Amino acid sequence: MKYETDERDKSKRQTYLIIECVKGKIKVLEKGYKHIEYLVSLVLRNREKNEIRINAKFKVTKEDEFKILIRCIIIGILLIEKGSDILLGIDEKVRRYFMKNLSNRKRIDEEYCIEMLAIEKFLKEEDLKLDILKHSELENIKEEKGKIRKLLELMKKENFETYEINVMDEALTINEFNLFWKYQKDRNEVELEEMLYEAIAEYEEILISDDKKEEVEILRDININFMKQCYSRIWELLRGVYNRKFDEISKKKEYKNVIEHLWSFCYDKYRTRIWVKRCDEVAEIEKDRGIDLKKEKKNRGGR
């Protein structure tokens, strides 16, 4: 559902997106695994105080309230009319963190990189402007946020109707992010892991041939943790996003050097076998269709 207007004013329509989140039940499963419930409420409200309210429930295996909130933002902006000004009402702590990440790409926490990129791209395509309310401005919706939180606390005890929501990473991998998604459709994910294993083995052979015994020992010491980190966020390696969690494998300088060089080597292997191949495929398609991007750019006044 989207807000509709009979006549667009010169100034863009302002819509409040109010989000509240509380942690719900924690269920311990077999082998010590946990299921953590987060109850969330999204309220879309315009200046006339017409509103849409959605109560939802997320089930996760890792406590991460910020990730839940940022994915609720994605759900919220999908429901808002194109060309709107969005006034986002969230907690001050989250507001500061979100603004820091959205405004400074270099400081984006890799854990939320895919969500932040998806938000930025959607805002641009839908001509949406996102303005996060400052602490003083939150007074305008303080009463509303209080009511929402009370409702969520009540939902923890009572059986209220909720929608169970699952925002998949693959659903956010659009356009430039769809490389991984498309590759998974054509290839089994196991092949990606095999490529990583082969790259690490090849890197070890290079170190051995160069008689770098110390580096070989370090590699053998860290390769399991390195592979685990790569497997958990394989899309980052495909896109060349270096996750700072690699730095947590070891604090020793010589270890960090090997890890960084190994990561660069593995990324180059993926880039060569996937990115370059995909670019060549696109070039062939453009050639078959008679598309000349250089000529089109020149006609538009580009150099």
Report on this model:
This protein has 303 residues and is of the alpha/beta class. The protein folds into two domains: 14-171, Nucleotidyltransferase, domain 5 (2-Layer Sandwich), CATH 3.30.420; 175-288, no CATH class. It contains eleven helices and six strands. The protein has helices spanning 65-78, 92-103, 113-125, 142-157, 169-172, 178-186, 189-209, 213-232, 234-239, 253-288, 293-299; strands at 14-28, 34-46, 51-60, 85-89, 129-132, 163-164. The chain has a six-stranded mixed sheet with strand order 5-4-1-2-3-6. The longest helix is centred in the C-terminal third of the chain and has 36 residues, at 253-288. The protein is extended, with a radius of gyration of 24 Å. The protein starts with 13 loop residues before the first strand and ends with a helix. The relative contact order is 0.09. The model is unreliable at 1-8, 103-108 and 173-186 (pLDDT under 50).
